[in-house]
Amino acid sequence: MRKQNIILAMAATCALAGVAHAQSARDYISIVGSSTVYPFSTTVAEHFGKANSKFKTPKVESTGTGGGLKLFCGGVGVQYPDMTNASRKIKSSEVENCAKNGVKEIVEVKIGYDGIVVASSKKTKPMSLTRKDLWLALAKEIPEPGTGKLVANPLKTWKDVNPELPAQKIEVLGPPPTSGTRDAFVELVMDEGCKDFPAIKDLAKSDDKKAKAACGAIREDGAYIEAGENDNLIVNKLVSNLNALGIFGFSFLDENLDKIQGETIDGVPPNFENIASGKYPVSRPLFFYVKKAHVAVIPGMKEYIAEFTSEKAAGNEGYLADKGLIPLPPAERKQVAADANSLKTMTP
């Protein structure tokens, strides 16, 4: 029995050594995840690569938040990413999936805030929208006038949604279900926009789960067009299609103000000051997640984390603010940096 235990221990040691060797064979950091965090992450990667001659510039891929977390949670080893960007907090189900695949120590780094904007070409007249307008325009089912019964969304134009809006076809380009921006849009716009409808309130009394599903379900009849994880593609489509609106993170609006404009939501325009102050109603925190098991063997991971959480990057006057990131308040920023650089892991 003792001999068998020794053999098992030796096998486990060899397996761990194999993982470490495989990881050390990769000499650059592999980062996946959110298309919203992508421009911030690539900017940090570029600064990091220029400032640290002994480390290679990290490879950053835009896979969407959900897709990135799936890859990240796949396991430990060179074939799996070291970090993943996220435009929402990791879900408990994703943490469980990570643990099931051996990814048990995860460092969560909150980097700042972002607003989700609804934008259009600068050549069109801007619209003043409410979250109620957006829900009526994009929900899969809405209450039928008179009966209150939920029926397939029959609304074709923005004027059908609200008489004060133009008689323009509803055509919205937005992220797919794998996107953290889509998750946040559902939570901050769709779930809020449906709340005041009596039919939804009545449904919630009898079946809260069904009411939540009705609030968050987006129509599939062509009014909402899934445009993939490339937000720059949506920006380009808005320039060529004057009737369309697009949904993406504030940084993409901020970088393209010569071509597109952000629509007012609930009376508040999407700008840096309104998102930073909390006035803009559609804002959310942004994160990246680190696989602690990779830190000791993939070169530069600690240094990249230090760069991302530094004042020169994430501070009020940092280079990420120039890219559209809304910095964390100073005290929170200091605590986040301390926890990230000490590799403090998430508690289950």
Task: Describe what this molecule looks like in 3D.
This protein starts with a helix and ends in a 7-residue tail after the last helix. Strand 1 (30-33), helix 2 and strand 2 form a beta-alpha-beta unit. 42% of the residues lie in helices and 17% in strands. The model is unreliable at 1-23 (pLDDT under 50). The chain is built from 16 helices and 13 strands. It folds into 2 domains: 22-113 and 285-341, D-Maltodextrin-Binding Protein, domain 2, CATH 3.40.190; 115-283, 3-Layer(aba) Sandwich (D-Maltodextrin-Binding Protein, domain 2). The strands form 3 sheets. Strands 1, 2, 3, 4, 8, 9, 10, 11 and 13 form a 9-stranded mixed beta sheet that branches. A two-stranded parallel sheet has the order 5-12. A two-stranded antiparallel ribbon has the order 6-7. With 348 residues, it is of the alpha/beta class. 42% of the residues are buried.
Could you give the topology of this structure?
Layout (H helix, E strand, L loop, with lengths): L1 H23 L5 E4 L4 H14 L7 E2 L4 H8 L10 E4 L5 H9 L5 E16 L6 E2 L1 H8 L2 E3 L6 E3 L5 H4 L10 E3 L5 H14 L4 H9 L1 H9 L7 E3 L4 H10 L4 E5 H5 L5 E3 L1 E2 L6 H6 L5 E9 H4 L5 H8 L2 H4 L15 H12 L7
